[in-house]
Amino acid sequence: MKIDVATLFPEAFDGLKVGVVGKALAKGLFELRLHNIRDYSADKHRRCDDYPFGGGAGMLMTPQPLHDCINAIDPAHRARRIYLSPKGKTLTQRRVVELAGEEALLFVCGAYEGVDQRVIDLDIDEEMSIGDYVLTGGEIAAMAAINAISRYIPGVLGSEQSTDEESFSDGLLEYPQYTRPAVFNGVAVPDVLLSGNHAEVDKWRRARQLELTRKLRPDLLKGEDK
Ligand code: 4FV
Asked: Do the domain assignments include residue 101?
């Protein structure tokens, strides 16, 4: 998979060069290319922002640098072009898995109050949000999406890790997890997990998932008989 990012702050993506994702990049399991939108500005001062027509607080990203950057990266429009925005559909694990199947992704990071609407209309396939709040730029949202998507790229998670049983993989929150020591700070691990009875462990875990999901995320229970 090839992931391109159009951003005013390429250095923000150093955060992806560590840990599991950093190792995967070093091994070439997927490709990440960063493009500085400012390099495409035709303005003599390399400006990429201007005041919004009609007034209003803050600045907007001007259309020319972003439009030219996007089309220089992806001239044949082969990539799925995603603009990070609070107006977008909130990213879910289901969408993460779908995007992990794409050959090429292009994440477009806004800044300031956002971007000129004509770039979205002309150049963007989908708007994606990571949550109902406003960030100063799309970079953190893009890194969150890239991080989540990378977990589904073959070889990124070691054999000891898996995407099979985790929060949202079966539409429910994950069950509580414990490791050594068996008693910590006077609190013991639930006996069933030490029993060696896998059927009972599975039953206990499913019951905890339902209990946790009902308590913390009832919205995930779509009325199905769970
Ligand atoms: C955002 C979000 C987000 C809005 C203006 C960047 C900022 C600036 N992106 N999920 N929530 N973006 O707040 O994805 O351009």
From this structure: yes
Helix spans in 124-195 (H): 139-150
- Confidence (pTM): 0.94
Pocket test for ligand 1, best of 135, 136, 139, 146 (most atoms within 8 A of CB): 135
Q: Residue 19 sits in a domain of what CATH number?
A: 3.40.1280.10
The pLDDT value recorded for residue 226 is: 42
Number of structural domains (the chain) is 2
102-122 pLDDT, tens digit each: 999 999 999 999 999 999 999
Distance 145 CA to ligand 1 centre (A): 13
Count CB-CB contacts under 10 A for residue 52.
15
| Average confidence (pLDDT) over 46-60 | 97
Q: How far apart are CA 80 and CA 35, in angstroms?
A: 16
User: Residues 166-204: pLDDT tens digits?
Assistant: 778 788 999 999 999 999 999 999 999 999 999 999 999
User: Which atom of ligand 1 lies closest to the CA of 113?
Assistant: 5
Ligand 1 mean position, distance from CA 140 (Å): 9
- Domain identity same for 30 and 65: yes
Residue 37 and residue 7 in contact, taking contact as beta carbons nearer than 8 Å:
yes
User: 83 and 182: one domain?
Assistant: no
Question: Which atom from ligand 1 is nearest to the alpha carbon of 135?
Answer: 13
